[in-house]
Amino acid sequence: MNPTANAPAHRRRRPAWRRRRALAGWLLALPFTALFAAFMVGPLTASLALSFSDATSRDLRTPFAVGFVGLSNFADLFSDEKFLRAIGNTVYFAGVGVPLTVAVAMLIALALNNGVNRFRALFRVGFYTPVVTSIVAIAVVWKYILEPDGLLNQGLAGLGVTGPDWLHDTSFAMPSLILMAMWRNMGTLMIVFLAGLQGLPAEVYEAARMDGAGPFQRFRSLTLPLMRPTILLGCVLISVYYFQFFEEAFVMTGGGPLDSTLSITYFTYNQFGYGNYGYASAASYILAVAIAIVTLVQFRVLRAKD
Amino acid sequence: MAIRKNIRRSRWYLYIPLLIGLALTVLPFVWMVSGAFKPQREILSGEFTLLPENGTLRNFADLFTRVDFSSYFVNSVVVAVAVVLGNLLFCSMLGYALSKIEFPGRRALFAVVMTMLMVPTVVTFIPLFVLVTRMGLANTFGALILPFLAAPLGVFIMRQFIGDIPDSLIEAARLDGAGEFRIFFTVVIPLSGPALATLAILQFLSSWNEFLWPLVAAQTEDMYTLPVGIALISAGANTVNYGLLLAGATVIVLPILVLFLFLQRFFIQGISTTGLK
């Protein structure tokens, strides 16, 4: 009986400081949590609600008086040719842009990791530079470069090739944007891949070399499988980003010519501009869900081969 | 380590494609700065001259006389500084609470914050616009700043870093009778320098380059940030004044590039520790 007789006093003391500490924990968490709830979680939920409503800019004063329209926004979207076009363009941008950026970043990282000892830091900084710049600012620069008589076409003319009017041609506008996005983002993946390559075990490579495996064989059967988690991370990062593309098109093409560079984000922005809040929210939710699905699928596909 | 170094001997033939690639990567920046100093006639002439023949500061002067560029600049600086300071404080407070203090609901809170890590602005900007309008904050600094004060990425970084601070240090301070807030300011913050630097740089960059939300939230020219101002000049004009735009782009990009060259360790650390842009 003696040990338990002591317990109540003991137990009463513990909760006291525990409660005080828990309170301090919540107070420390409060500012972030309040802002986070008001400006992120709240709007995310509200956006879902809006996507089932017929809200327009006229409802700004009375946001709770809007009508519930069920899934009709979504049904309308999938029969809206512009939206379908925007889906196609977004898939095109990410579908070509992601593999291209991953491949180029991997080539640079491999080169830097295998036999570039001098000036490696210089290369690393140089290739990374575009990542820190404002997309709007560099889109202005690229627009200037891609003018019919701009830098690129002058360079091509030097090689005897007549370049197209890149940004005003329906078949060249999107490749131009993809090229710029690759230039802007390859540095991020290069850093991620370099970190991955430097973590690979040197002994395994030495053993493979002893067994007579050439550089391509070593890449295929050692580097690629060992780097799979890193490549996966790179793919996820960059596709989440590419699926939202907007600024490039806003500055360089205005979504044109003939909607050939209109992305889902751009479509959403335009619908918001027309005041169709419910419709625009539904479009943005489709994008968010698409991003979530693509992320999951990438995890599945790249994991499955293990 | 010695063996490893032997294996990785230099391969000179790799330098040629890498140097070409590097030149192509840097060329747009060179072309931007060069164009910013060219008079309109030279820009339109369609000739390739790396250095302007008749260099001029006219384009930079035009930024202040023909458009309200000084407002854009001040707005961008004010918003970025406020966003950085807010996040440094709020993210490290929450990071400390999450990693070192037992309080009910902390696991759930962390899970919710991390789920929001990948939510794009495009999904939240419409209700956000309704919200700031209802709060009477439309077209104010409040609208530009408030939505970015709580960055999930910052919590991730700070929780990770503060979690590595030895518990014994914090326990010692507790035994000395220090309260949690006091520990936070006198023990945790002084030890978190590198993480705070990384967070400050990441937040400054993302605020400086942010586009969609300021485009929606700033409605009059005196509230535009730099990217909004430049984008709307570029989109609005019938004939594009490239001299003006390139000068504007230079003012947006160059300070960041200089900052990057001096602080690249922190920039790149931010990428490789978090794996996020």
From TrEMBL, chain A:
UniProt KW Cell membrane keyword: yes
Principal cellular location given in the protein's record: membrane
Protein keywords: Cell membrane, Membrane, Transmembrane, Transmembrane helix, Transport
Membrane topology field: Multi-pass membrane protein
GO cellular component terms attached to this protein's record: plasma membrane
Cellular localisation: Cell membrane
Keyword presence, Lipid metabolism: no
Domain of life: Bacteria
GO biological process: transmembrane transport
Record-annotated membrane-spanning stretches: 91-113, 125-145, 186-205, 226-243, 282-302
Residue ranges annotated for the ABC transmembrane type-1 domain, each copy included: 87-298
Protein family membership: Belongs to the binding-protein-dependent transport system permease family.
PANTHER family: ABC TRANSPORTER PERMEASE PROTEIN, INNER MEMBRANE ABC TRANSPORTER PERMEASE PROTEIN YCJO
Protein name listed in UniProt: Sugar ABC transporter permease
Protein's organism: Acrocarpospora macrocephala
UniProtKB/TrEMBL annotation, chain B:
Segments passing through the bilayer: 12-31, 72-96, 108-129, 141-162, 183-205, 242-263
Membrane topology, record value: Multi-pass membrane protein
Record-level GO BP terms: transmembrane transport
Pfam families in the record: BPD_transp_1
Sorted UniProt keywords: Cell membrane, Membrane, Transmembrane, Transmembrane helix, Transport
GO CC, any one term: plasma membrane
Domain ABC transmembrane type-1, residue spans: 73-263
InterPro entries membership: MetI-like, MetI-like_sf
Subcellular location, principal: membrane
UniProt key word Membrane: yes
Coiled-coil zones: none
Domain of life from the UniProt record: Bacteria
Subcellular location: Cell membrane
Keyword Protein transport part of the UniProt annotation: no
Homology family: Belongs to the binding-protein-dependent transport system permease family.
Protein's name in the database: Sugar ABC transporter permease
Organism: Acrocarpospora macrocephala
